[in-house]
Amino acid sequence: MTYVAPRHRAGIYHYDEIDRQFVRERVAQFRGQVERRLRGELSEDEFKPLRLMNGLYLQLHAYMLRIAIPYGVLSSTQLRGLARIGRRHDKGYGHFTTRQNLQYNWIGLADTPDILAELAEIDMHAIQTSGNCIRNVTTDQFAGAAPDEVVDPRVYAEILRQWSTLHPEFSFLPRKFKIAITGAPNDRAAVRVHDVGLVTKRDGDGNVGFEVYVGGGLGRSPFIAPKVRDWLPEEDLVAYLEAVLRVYNQYGRRDNIYKARIKILVHQIGVARFAEQVEAEFARIRGPFYRLDPVLVDAIRGHFAPPPFEALPAVSEAYEEARRRDAAFAAWATSSVHAHRTPGYASVTISLKPVGGVPGDITADQMDAVADLADRYGFGEIRVTHEQNLVLAHVRRNDLHALWQGLAAAGLASANAGLVTDIIACPGLDYCSLANARSIPLAQEISRRFADLDRQRAIGELKIKISGCINACGHHHVGHIGILGVDKKGEEFYQITLGGNAELAGAAIGDIAGPALTADDAVDAVEAVVNRYLDLRTPGERFIDTLARVGHGPFKEMVNAAR
Amino acid sequence: MPLVKDGRPAADTWTTLADDAPVPADGAVIVSLARWRAERAALVARTAPVGVLLPSDAPADAPGDGIAGLALIAVAFPKFRDGRGFTTARRLREEFGFTGTLRAVGDVLPDQYQFLHRCGFDEVELPAGRDAAAWIAAAGPITVAYQAALRDGGPLGLLRRRVA
């Protein structure tokens, strides 16, 4: 396909010279640290927190470098840069994570300063993608496009990105700290399973403020975050978060890594007392020093200005005609095309979950293809979702069929977004030094089992999430069907949970549904549970709703019988 | 012990006293928090300056209302991962208005120096055996900061300012 440069680009945050200088200095600093490590001047114990602050993990087979994709937004130029690095320094691919970041799994330590320098050239870095600091802020992949959006959350996500970058007080917290923000009542950012969850909203006069949740999280001790404040005025966002972090930094547990997250502090002292302490600190520090100036907010909002949309009819005849004519296209459109607030436009999910594939993996060539398609049809912008897919946020409906053909040519037209084979899975024991069991082969096997698209569409919305250990990077606790890998005397087993839900309303941790199973039995159990659902559901009822209506009993029977 | 002050090696003019060591008539001394609480009247009656060492689990209000009598507060970092001291320092400066010298003591990495500085510390006491000049050289300055902190002055600007 001929390359077509974008006539206009979607508004994203653009680095200025100060941002660039900061990243270049940081690269130089890390280069020095790596040299000290290679010369033996730094012990691994001393080097570890420094490399983690730069996203570098030591995994089972190699170093893994995790690149920050702030709130999941990429320009096509950046995606091409990531493809280039994947070719030059990895095995020709990258892996998108549940935190809207990208990981390279096959990195040499000595290469990392050069990789970071190459990232700096595309205004990217790996700062704070690991370590006990404030991590990449995540948000709704349809921000700035969704019809139900009240306030664009990217503006505040960018403010929080800047505020949290090398924060002098909060870079050595008891444990990692994750903030998620949404600006729509339909929460696509799973805010209540984060250390801090923010729901951006407006009061009766149109002023922006935030609902604040603190102390959610998955891992060994899953918690749905309680609300600590119903209304936080926009100008107090930074002051209040400083107060939350300050309370946590002083009183969060440091004696036990498994009890060090803020959720444990909130749970142990109780949300009322925790909120009191935060409010007291907030009252002390609130003032001009931490006030978020509306002029600043407007300046950052300016970066996210909508692209120049054409005036188009709401219904695209070309698109409707293509759907009638082409069944494969229609199937893809049903799962991948989402409503947009502007008539004649749509947001598009690009599934990274081909049947038998590795969830979230993408080759360098595919990255280039997506970048080209984004330039041609999507104002040069790409989003990464926490479900390990990509999104083009603003596409003319007239262009959807051509976009789909372009995706199909790159092997990226899987029509399963949101369906049972759109599985979240962590890297698991294939890569990760923490894992107890492999996640990827199980995801591959389940996706093969349900490969028939007609069957998937008959099943409808069903979220399967797989983690290879209790750290829950695959979010199994909030999967409609969750699968947790466990180690039993050196063998891999899988524990199935039912009824988890990551959405704001109805957020829930799944219940354990029976004994741990072998991989083969676990796949059978998932299939049996799905079949039972098909027997029990009323017309149009989603899996999660049938489960709520009839209870877990009939499904637990299926899991038990699978052994 | 070698000190780093304002980004340069500096001589330590303070003596850290063990709890059972007698208090000398002259000379600046740093005492434990327990000793400060027990012998405060006698310590401030001397003409020489007195400082206190706060353990990492002591909150910023631990010196109590006697804080004005202190010329120096040393904050312990038992492990570099233990970041409580950063908050302690900011609270001492911002909440309790401490204007004396703030010293970081213990297991501190050069890469933390700028964080310490921006949280209100004036100086760092290096672990025994560390060469101050090499330690400073290893820090690798970052001249851009994005958040309001101490030493930068002024209200929160565009969430960023140059610090050097």
Proportion of residues in extended strands of chain B: 15-25%
Report, as a whole number of angstroms, the end-to-end distance of chain B: 27 Å
Main sheet overview of chain A: 5 strands, antiparallel
Q: What would CATH call the class of chain B?
A: Alpha Beta
Question: Could you walk me through the main structural features you see in this protein, from its secondary elements to its overall organization?
Answer:
The complex is a heterodimer of chains A (563) and B (164). With 563 residues, chain A is α+β, with helices and mostly antiparallel strands. Chain A folds into four domains: 17-121, Sulfite Reductase Hemoprotein, domain 2; 145-303, Sulfite Reductase Hemoprotein, domain 1; 317-409, Alpha-Beta Complex (Sulfite Reductase Hemoprotein, domain 2), CATH 3.90.480; 424-561, Sulfite Reductase Hemoprotein, domain 1, CATH 3.30.413.10. In chain A, 37% of the residues lie in helices and 17% in strands. In chain A, the strands form four sheets. Chain A has a five-stranded antiparallel beta sheet. In chain A, a hairpin with a 4-residue loop joins strand 1 (56-58) and strand 2. In chain A, helix 5 (153-164) packs across helix 9 (294-303) and helix 12 (364-377) packs antiparallel against helix 13 (400-409). By secondary structure, chain B is an alpha/beta fold. Chain B has a single domain (3-139), classed as TIM Barrel (Alpha-Beta Barrel). Chain B is 24% helix and 23% strand. Chain B has helices at residues 33-45, 84-95, 113-118, 132-139, and strands at residues 3-5, 8-10, 14-16, 28-32, 50-54, 72-77, 101-106, 123-125, 144-145, 161-162. The A-B interface holds A 18-19, 21-22, 25-26, 28-29, 32-33, 36, 41, 46, 49-50, 132, 159, 162-173, 238, 246, 249-250, 254, 284-285, 288-293, 296, 299 and B 59, 80-84, 86-88, 90-91, 94-95, 109, 111-112, 114-119, 138, 140-149, 155-160, 162.
